[in-house]
Amino acid sequence: MPPKDEFTPFLPTLREPVTAALHRLFALGSKVDITWQKIADIPSGKIGGLRVTLSSPKRPQLILDLSDKDPTRPSWLNGTYMALAYRKTPEGKEPISVPVLKPLLVHAAKSFRSREEQVFPELSQALVELRRFDGVEDWMFRQRTEQPGAVVGNLRLGFGCNQDCSFCWQDRGWPEPPSELYFTWLDELAALGVDTLIITGGEPTVHKALPELVKRAAQTHKMRVQLQSNAIQFRRPKLLKSLLDSGLESAFISFHSADAAVSDHMTRARGTYKNTVKGISAALDAGLHIDLNCVVETQNVHTLGEHARFIVEHFVKPFPDNPIGRVTYSHPASYYDRDAWAAAMVPLDEVRPQLLSAALTLTDAGIPVEVIGTCGFPPCLFSGHDELVRSLPRDEVSSWDQRSRAYAPECEDCAGKRHCLGLRKAYLERFGSRGIMPFTTDPDPPRRPVLDVLAQHAEPSLP
């Protein structure tokens, strides 16, 4: 989990209507605190199951289970719509037999009988609204990380997108916070010392607040601002100029194949490949610094050489004063559909020749290539090509990234182990150590400055 949250909360505030309804259900005063957790899914128009804890300074906790009424299941109390049960104390005692708990239990029962029908619609509606955010956590919207040479902030403008990439870890249906919260979080990131901001999504260019957020970050807070995008909207001159005028310095753009059919299939958005190409070209022509990212999986792995050649011919040679700055090839961290993720992974021995071909084409053209980052591949895959290898020790990445990786047995004797994060656990589960080539001597690769690696996916790996 992320460190202690230092930002204005969003999701906890959505729990407040549920807590308020429970307070009304049990007619509790301010001296009794209510906490709750979901213990069963919430069907439409019902409440599912909640474990409700009543606490106050002078008595032990009283734990109640509130659920939908079910005639087939015995309960302590049954109302018209809901049922109530209680749990024994940690010592195994019935709460009715504990003198300090008995009055609270009796009061809760009496109030439940008289208020259950009245409170049920309010409680059910509050839980249904909260259910829309299942799978979403506050840290997904804003993060701060300290890295050598920079304090980096992430600001995610919801999950809406004009594509629906099969390899994305998000659910396109997840809701987003009110727009004003993005500005609050941006100001809080600035107060926490962030000097480099990455704005991401979803697709941030479809969010109306984007230009103003870039302006506040760049001009008010003096941050370096990078956008993670698919570049489709960059083909619109008015938006692109607005972002540049606001202070946008760079963009990290997803470009997964030079083949339109492959690209559109991967992004599940027919016809958008051509608009991404137009958008990248427009941004380069306007002077925006562009880095590219390519997710490597079964659909595009055998076309990586063509991908690199296309970049050189279309995004490098035509823009001698502002060519592509860097190309990153990523080993996907997670998909929203975990089964699809497992099916899309490619054995490293099949990746290596294709990826080397692409990387060497780009480096020969003077374009830096990143293949090792937190969303990259193990260094041993590029043994013999020192220009592609760099050191990325486990203790220099987030705990999230560490938890998503592990070493194969063959890695134990690798001379380069101290430079490597290890393999994705999902890869080990499916392919074991296939494709691993342990170093026999320490390659002693360089560490690249973090600011060179903003394109190294500012996303945590999602275990």
Notes on the protein architecture:
The chain has twelve helices and 15 strands. With 463 residues, it is an alpha/beta fold. The strands form three sheets. Strands 6-7-8-9-10-11-12-13 form an eight-stranded mixed sheet. A five-stranded antiparallel sheet has the order 1-2-3-5-4, covered by helices on one side. Strands 14-15 form a two-stranded antiparallel sheet.
Q: According to CATH, what is the topology of the largest domain? A: TIM Barrel
* Strand content bin: 15-25%
Which ranges are low-confidence, i.e. pLDDT below 50, for 5 or more consecutive residues? 450-463
Number of domains: 2
In CATH terms, what is the architecture of the largest domain?
Alpha-Beta Barrel
Alpha-carbon distance between the two ends:
11 Å
> Which CATH top level class of the largest domain fits?
Alpha Beta
Give the SSE map.
Elements: H1 11-26, E1 33-40, E2 49-56, E3 59-68, E4 77-78, E5 82-86, H2 102-131, E6 142-147, E7 150-156, H3 179-191, E8 196-200, H4 210-220, E9 224-229, H5 237-246, E10 250-254, H6 260-267, H7 273-285, E11 289-295, H8 304-316, E12 326-330, H9 338-344, H10 348-364, E13 369-370, H11 399-403, E14 405-406, E15 423-424, H12 425-431
Parallel strand pairs: 7-8, 8-9, 9-10, 10-11, 11-12, 12-13
Antiparallel strand pairs: 1-2, 2-3, 3-5, 4-5, 6-7, 14-15
Q: Which characteristics define this entry?
A:
eight-stranded mixed β-sheet, disordered C terminus, 463 residues, 2 domains, alpha/beta, 15 strands, 12 helices, TIM Barrel, elongated
